[in-house]
From TrEMBL:
Classification via Gene3D superfamilies: 3.40.630.30
InterPro entries: Acyl_CoA_acyltransferase (IPR016181), GNAT_dom (IPR000182), Ribosomal_N-acetyltransferase (IPR051908)
The species this protein was found in: Brachybacterium kimchii
PANTHER family per UniProt: ACETYLTRANSFERASE, RIBOSOMAL-PROTEIN-SERINE ACETYLTRANSFERASE
Domain of life, per lineage: Bacteria
Protein name, entry field: GNAT family N-acetyltransferase
Domain N-acetyltransferase span(s) in chain numbering: 14-182
Pfam families in the cross-refs: Acetyltransf_3
Length: 208
């Protein structure tokens, strides 16, 4: 079934929620501060350079795609502060029943476990509430930080896709990782990815 929108997912101080109009200043500041950190991994258009969409355009697009169940784009907030994004899309139903996951985190707050926890929250939702069978993540082999997220969450490495996505001016190779719902030991609510991450990587203090 298509996901409910607007969608809010939480784990202690971490929240995934839709981008809001009042987030504009904080979100734009976050993007500017992380431009160099993110540019080697951001998808680009091989045909032409497109201007970055305005905040209002992003809001309209995420609202439309979220309500249609085609793409979930969620702001990741830690202690109420915008800290990155986690997304699922395109979301495919029927025979494929799958989604591609994307994520990025503020460089200043990287290494604190926010990215894997945010991805785990969303994957649990996609499996338990949306009923998807499979998620995948495609990562440039050079992106060590992103590779660590996929491996911490026990996604299977499925191999190299050569010249797969246009990134930073050229078609780049990507490593593909995947996880299916039947590979996850779940609780009574059908969730298990976040619980496994917490058991393996977080101590009594919540540090990761």
């Amino acid at each position: 079934m298509p996901p409910v929108w607007p969608l809010v997912l939480s784990d202690a101080e971490l929240t995934l929620r839709p981008l809001r109009r009042r987030d504009r200043r904080a979100f734009e500041t976050l993007l500017v501060r992380n431009r160099e950190w993110l540019s080697p991994w951001d998808a680009t258009d091989p045909e032409r350079r497109r201007p970055r969409p305005t905040h209002a355009e992003l809001l309209r697009w995420s609202e439309r795609e979220g309500r249609a169940g085609r793409h979930l784009s969620l702001l990741l907030c830690a202690d109420g502060r915008p800290t990155g994004q986690v997304s699922a899309g395109p979301i495919l139903y029927g025979a494929q029943s799958s989604a591609t996951i994307g994520y990025w985190i503020d460089h200043a707050r990287a290494g604190r476990g926010y990215a894997p926890r945010g991805v785990a929250l969303l994957v649990d939702h996609l499996f338990a509430e949306v009923g998807l069978h499979r998620v995948e993540i495609n990562i440039r082999p050079e992106n060590e930080a992103s590779l660590r997220v996929a491996r911490k969450l026990h996604l299977r490495e499925e191999g190299l896709r050569e010249r797969f996505i246009h990134v930073d001016g050229a078609f780049r190779d990507h490593l593909s990782f995947a996880l299916t719902a039947d590979e996850v030991e779940t609780d009574e609510r059908g969730r298990g990815v976040l619980a496994r991450y917490r058991r393996e990587h977080m101590g009594a203090t919540g540090a990761s």
